[in-house]
Q: What sequence folds into this?
């Protein structure tokens, strides 16, 4: 079905019309299509599908949000094209959903999607640069109101981000005059305020 561009686009466009009662069924259909890993690269590259996921992810309807998040979770788990998800709009949807403690399925799916995105080096920069993503992960990791499994996923995502950042730092060239030391050095630096010899 996903190889039929007209069908996929029609489902995605109908999903975005939140006033039409059929939009929830279309979003549910898109979500079920993501259960087949072969569909996920195609869906990740479809701008209409990404638009539908954003619109339904921001919906006031709980079912719309959960179907959108389940679709995102499947696509980011099995797609080699995760970078398409690392944009401000979809990441803001994930942050909002991650902080909805009263909706367990919703926040579990949102944290899982963020965790999936953190495993892709092409997504990490956008994840770190988007407001509130790291804050949401830290909040979930330290808030005992979340389940232990989800706290673990949040901690794993933070550790993965740290690993990518350290890898980038190690790959950088060391300027002349500085010794190459294993990172992190755990040394503090600061302005020598009381040094009167200069």
A:
């Amino acid at each position: 079905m996903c190889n039929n561009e007209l069908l996929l686009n029609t489902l995605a466009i109908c999903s975005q019309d939140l006033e039409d009662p059929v939009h929830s069924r279309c979003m549910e259909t898109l979500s079920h299509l993501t259960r087949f890993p072969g569909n996920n690269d195609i869906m990740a590259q479809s701008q209409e599908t990404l638009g539908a996921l954003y619109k339904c992810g921001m919906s006031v309807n709980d079912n719309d949000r959960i179907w959108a998040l389940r679709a995102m979770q499947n696509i980011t788990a099995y797609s080699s094209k995760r970078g398409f998800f690392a944009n401000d709009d979809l990441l803001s949807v994930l942050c909002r959903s991650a902080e909805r403690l009263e909706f367990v399925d919703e926040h579990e799916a949102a944290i899982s999607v963020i965790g999936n995105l953190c495993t892709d080096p092409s997504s990490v920069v956008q994840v770190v640069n988007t407001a509130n993503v790291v804050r949401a992960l830290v909040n979930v990791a330290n808030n005992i109101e979340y389940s232990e499994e989800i706290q673990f996923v949040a901690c794993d995502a933070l550790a993965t981000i740290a690993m990518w950042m350290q890898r980038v730092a190690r790959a950088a060239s060391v300027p002349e005059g500085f010794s190459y030391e294993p990172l992190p050095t755990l040394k503090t630096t600061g302005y020598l305020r009381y040094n009167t010899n200069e």
Summary: The chain has two domains: 1-64, 86-168. The CA atoms of residues 16 and 55 lie 6 Å apart.
